[in-house]
Structure prediction request, 147 residues.
Amino acid sequence: MFSIESIMSTDLITLPPTANLAEARKLMQSNRIHHLPIVEGDREVVGLITLTDVLAATDSILRDDENRLHAKEILVRDVMVTDLATVDEHASLRQAALFLEKHKIGCLPVVTDGKLRGIITDTDFVGVAINLLEQIEDTEPVEREYA
Prediction:
């Protein structure tokens, strides 16, 4: 059966809290991701930043140049979420899914022994759902049309 460890992303892209929002946005765009764990030292998670956070913190291009805050001027540490939920890689996949749904969040960093091991997102759960639906379809009898 599925486990958090089996579906989490482990090829992680992270940033330090001293990075700026321009760096965060560029990483998200080039890697087609919406969540960046913020780490210090040896993969210690200190926060999380989402694409929504980046867009909300960046000034509109409609504001005049003299008064606009540029993404290069805003540090990740000033915008990141620090009160974040994490999950252990050995936790129940069902509990993690229910937590995401209940709290209306898009991801959970997977942390074991204080170190970032992976990230599990709502997209990962869509993949699980597709797999389960395919398994169900494979076991259902084929319906025949009779003329």
